[in-house]
Design a protein that fits this description.
Elements (H helix, E strand, L loop, with lengths): L12 H7 L6 H4 L6 E7 L5 E4 L6 H6 L9 E8 L6 E9 L2 H12 L5 E8 L2 E10 L14 H7 L2 E5 L25 H4 L8 H15 L1 E5 H6 L1
Parallel strand pairs: 3-8
Antiparallel strand pairs: 1-2, 1-3, 4-6, 4-7, 5-6
The structure holds flavin-adenine dinucleotide.
């Protein structure tokens, strides 16, 4: 999977780089554009140039993030990729005190979590969510359609998501989906038709497929190997 996966299914890597993107793995890997290694950009005079951090087009490479398309259109983006496990275990820790909340955020960002998210629902209603890849899960929750992921952050202490389950707009620690979590029986997700299996990995695939018409992301296997 990309090191930083945009949480909303419609966000492309071109848009995330041109408009800046941050997600629940950013505490470790940075903003979306900080995972980018190479860009093919259609520039104003009609040329398509490849920009890398150390070639003749490095100014374009470093100027492109947050340029909102003003410097050209990214046709291909090569970004860092990471290995993923089939499930993510979420832990929601509830705080009633902002100082403890921020201390906790600092602590988990310095530890071994794969994803970190924080939500402030009110001065005394704060939640720190950590996500960790796991090989197995007793159930998986589905936050597609009207199921609201962020509601589940207030209601639950623990949750499991499949990287291949239906989750629509929700990433492991994202906040885009819509309805309280309802655990489903083990195996239910696997029984669904393949075509309806959305989720983190399928979101990645959608992300990549959208790029076919806008910019094509190439998983950097060299980066994955070098970890
Ligand atoms: C409901 C919602 C939730 C969001 N949540 C998050 C979030 O959690 N984290 C986060 O970081 N962001 C979030 N965003 C913001 C989102 O990441 C940015 O708006 C992003 O730029 C959208 O990407 P897009 O692919 O939809 O691009 P568009 O909205 O289509 O375009 C955004 C800008 O990028 C330019 N652009 C698009 N593609 C290219 C390209 N290939 N080359 C050059 N320029 C291009 C466009 O011209 C435009 O200026 C959210 C946005 C919404 C609407």
């Amino acid at each position: 999977m990309p090191a930083v996966v945009p949480q909303l299914k419609s966000i492309t890597i071109g848009g995330a780089v041109a408009g800046i993107g941050i997600e629940s793995s950013s505490f470790r890997y940075g903003l979306v554009h900080e995972t980018v290694e190479e860009l093919d950009v259609l520039v104003g005079d009609g040329r398509v140039v490849t920009a890398t951090p150390d070639n003749d087009h490095r100014d374009l490479f470093f100027g492109f993030p947050n340029s909102y398309g003003t410097l050209g259109y990214a046709l291909r983006v090569k970004a860092r990729a990471l290995p993923a496990k089939p499930f993510v275990r979420l832990e929601h820790v509830h705080h009633r005190d902002a100082r403890r909340f921020f201390d906790h955020v600092g602590a988990v960002c310095g530890a071994d979590a794969d994803f970190v998210d924080g939500a402030v629902f009110g001065p005394h209603d704060l939640v720190v969510t950590t996500g960790r890849f796991v090989d197995a899960a007793p159930y998986t929750s589905d936050y597609s359609f009207e199921r609201i992921y962020w509601c589940s952050m207030r209601e639950r202490d623990e949750d499991f998501l499949s990287t291949r389950t239906i989750c629509g707009d929700g990433t492991p620690t994202g906040s885009g989906a819509r309805k309280p979590a309802r655990p489903e029986p083990a195996g239910a997700a696997a029984a669904r038709p393949q075509a309806s299996q959305l989720g983190l990995l399928s979101k990645v695939m959608r992300w990549n497929s959208r790029l076919g018409s806008r910019a094509r992301a190439i998983a950097c296997s060299a980066c994955t190997r070098s970890r």
